[in-house]
Write a structure and sequence with these properties.
mainly alpha
């Protein structure tokens, strides 16, 4: 006994070619032709059920794909927001140190100026002079120091005319 859909389709086509009038006649209880039309009905119903299940599966896969994309987008947004929050926290620390009149490293001032220009201006305007200002170490990570200097270095090298022939 074979249960594949293709064999059922072939069998239904053969039955349809052999007896086309069985499809138009109502099924008689217990008759030989009634058995053939019942098999044809089952085959067409199986085809309908198969196409319905395929459509449902396709819709489920589409929903799962959309949910996965949404999760990935949310993760990307969360990463961006956490980086932004860390940057804002570093800028706040640098600005508060400047406002107190303490000395901060030049790369910290550049970082504040690049990432929060309004905060930098406000910190400079509201700076209180101190007799003995405290010298702070940098708030920036290696990543922040290297990230800023690499991008500036690349633009500076690209801006120099004939920079490769200087050696």
């Amino acid at each position: 006994m074979e249960l594949s859909v293709n064999s059922r389709q072939r069998r239904a086509a053969q039955i349809g070619r052999n007896t086309p009038q069985t499809e138009t006649k109502p099924a008689a209880p217990g008759g030989g032709t009634a058995g053939r039309s019942a098999k044809t009905d089952k085959t067409s119903w199986s085809q309908t059920a198969l196409s319905f299940l395929q459509e449902v599966n396709r819709q489920d896969l589409e929903k799962q794909r959309k949910l996965l994309e949404a999760k990935q987008r949310k993760n990307g947004e969360l990463d961006f927001l956490s980086k932004s929050l860390k940057t804002m926290e570093k800028c706040r620390k640098i600005a508060s140190r400047i406002m107190k009149g303490d000395k901060v490293p030049p790369q910290d001032e550049r970082y504040l100026k690049d990432n929060d220009p309004d905060g930098y201006k406000l910190a400079l305007v509201s700076r209180k002079p101190k007799k003995n200002p405290k010298e702070w170490e940098s708030v920036l990570d290696e990543e922040d120091r290297m990230g800023g200097s690499e991008s500036r270095g690349e633009t500076a090298t690209a801006a120099e005319p004939g920079g490769e022939g200087m050696e």
